[in-house]
Amino acid sequence: MAGNQTSPNVARFDLPINDVEQQATLEVETEEYDYSKRAQWLRAAVLGANDGLVSTASLMMGVGAVKQDVKVMILTGFAGMVAGACSMAIGEFVSVYSQLEIELAQRKREKERRNNGGKDEQEEGEKESLPNPSLAAAASALAFTVGALVPLLAASFIKEYKVRLGVVFAVVTLALMIFGWLGAALGKAPAVRSSLRVLVGGWLAMAITFGLTKLIGSSGL
C-alpha cells in the first residue's frame, strides 16, 4: 500500500514543477522577443533625438561664436532642424527599404525551396516581422525635431549673448544625459556609461563647432 501511495504523490508534485519551469522559459523567450522587436523603432528614435539635439545645438553655438544676434541664432537652428529632420527621414527610409528588399528576396528564395503545407500561418508571421520603412522614417524625423527643439526653445527668450550661450549649453547638457539614460533604460544597457558617452560626444561636437567657427570668423573670412 505504501508503494502504491508514493507514485501518485511523486507524479502530482512533478507536474507543477515542470509547468513552472516551462512558464519561466516562455516568459524569458517572450521578454527577449519583445526587446528584439523594439530594436527598430528604438534605434531610429534614440539616434534621431541625439542627432537633432547635438547638430542643432552645435549649429547654434557655431553661429553664436561670431554673431550675437538672437534672431540669427534662432534662424540657424530652425533651418538646421528642418534640414536635419528631412535628411534623417529620407536616409532612414532608404536604409530600411533596402533592408526590406533584401529580406523579401531572401524569403522568396526560401519559399521556393519549401514544399506546400502550413504556408499561411508562417507567411502571416513573416509579414508582421518585416521592417517598416515609413514607420522608421517618421520616427527619425519626429525624434530629430524633438531633440532640435531643446536648444531652440532654450535660446528663444534670452537676448543677453553670454547668458544665452550658457543656458543653451546647460540645457543641452541636461538633455544629453536624459537621452543617454533613456536609451540605456529602454535597451537594458548600462545607464551611467551610456549617459557619459552621449554627453562627452555632444560636448565635443559643440566645442569643435564653436572653436572652428570662432577661428574662421576672427580671421576675417
Automatic annotation (TrEMBL):
Residues 108-130 are annotated as: Disordered. GO terms for molecular function: iron ion sequestering activity; iron ion transmembrane transporter activity; manganese ion transmembrane transporter activity. It catalyses: Fe(2+)(in) = Fe(2+)(out). InterPro entries: Ccc1_fam. Its main location: membrane. GO terms for cellular component: vacuolar membrane. The keyword Cytoplasm does not apply. The chain crosses the membrane at residues 70-90, 135-158, 165-186, 198-217. It holds the Pfam family VIT1. Residues 108-120 have a biased composition (Basic and acidic residues). It is a multi-pass membrane protein. One of its GO terms (biological process) is intracellular manganese ion homeostasis. Keywords: Ion transport, Iron, Iron transport, Membrane, Transmembrane, Transmembrane helix, Transport, Vacuole. Vacuolar Fe(2+) uptake transporter. Belongs to the CCC1 family. This is Vacuolar iron transporter. It comes from Salix viminalis. The lineage of its organism: Eukaryota, Viridiplantae, Streptophyta, Embryophyta, Tracheophyta.
